[in-house]
């Protein structure tokens, strides 16, 4: 099966966190355990070197980009689709794209967040250059966490790039989400380019929606999400549920969608402009035993006041969402 076929089939792709010890150094044992967890949970891919992995791994003083990509590649092998985050200016992006290709990654999630002053032709040329090295997954990142508005005209031209294989749609905005889906629809490449949700505030509804712009209906087939870095076994079940519903959507499923969004609010901390989003993911993994602590590379990056209590509330209110029993059953094996 080709990379396009795999992505078009609809996959759960967790955005891979960074496992650190108390000294804020890489905890290789737990880093490998996380990858093993995602594979055992039946995720179809992993995304490494992305926001959830912490962009600071690229800092020359930290220098963890290559080690972290390499560890995940060693554990994943050919079992799942491997996606590497690629960001920065042309020189940096090409360097990271070549690194990912050399380590056996299947594609690159291309961030344009560092190119805020570039016009649309320059952004498109940047994407073409990276796509000449490795298959590209486009990325619409919400402006509130560093992204930029990318209009319909950009996406309509972006999808013409031959080596674009998918797009992660994560503007947290329905209008901008439709811009991307409509661009793919009008391009005639819906059978070539897979659409993935990164809208953590609308995960299940994105997966349930069938889009129709007066032609062939299309859908968002899977997710590439930081939210799916936790409770991944449950996420796999939720994607299967979405795939099985092609017609009427019950009120029970709509309620489940709301519950998932409520859980995401506790993890991602929108109440404090997403300050605690990575630490919130780490906290859940810590409670499950997969991480030793919730440390981030930046000591100032931690959960916000009241966020731990919000996670407590989610655990108590929605006992059907965690996959803690699955993790408990296999944790010793993954840490071995």
Please tell me about this protein's structure.
- The mean pLDDT is 96.
- This protein is an alpha/beta fold and 336 residues long.
- It has helices at residues 3-8, 28-40, 65-76, 90-102, 120-131, 152-158, 174-187, 203-208, 232-243, 251-268, 277-288, 307-317, 324-335; strands spanning 12-14, 45-48, 81-86, 107-110, 136-141, 164-170, 194-197, 210-211, 218-219, 222-225.
Keywords:
336 residues, alpha/beta, eight-stranded parallel β-sheet, 10 strands, globular
Distance between the termini: 32 Å
Query: Average pLDDT across residues?
Result: 96
Percentage of β-strand residues: 5-15%
Helix proportion of residues, in percent? Answer: 40-55%
- Structural class comes to alpha/beta
Tell me about the biggest sheet? 8 strands, parallel
Strands side by side in the biggest sheet: 1-10-7-6-5-4-3-2
User: Which spans of ≥5 residues are poorly predicted at pLDDT below 50?
Assistant: none
H-E order: HEHEHEHEHEHEHEHEEEHHHHH
Enumerate how many helices there are, as a single number: 13
Q: What is the number of E strands?
A: 10
Rg result? 19 Å
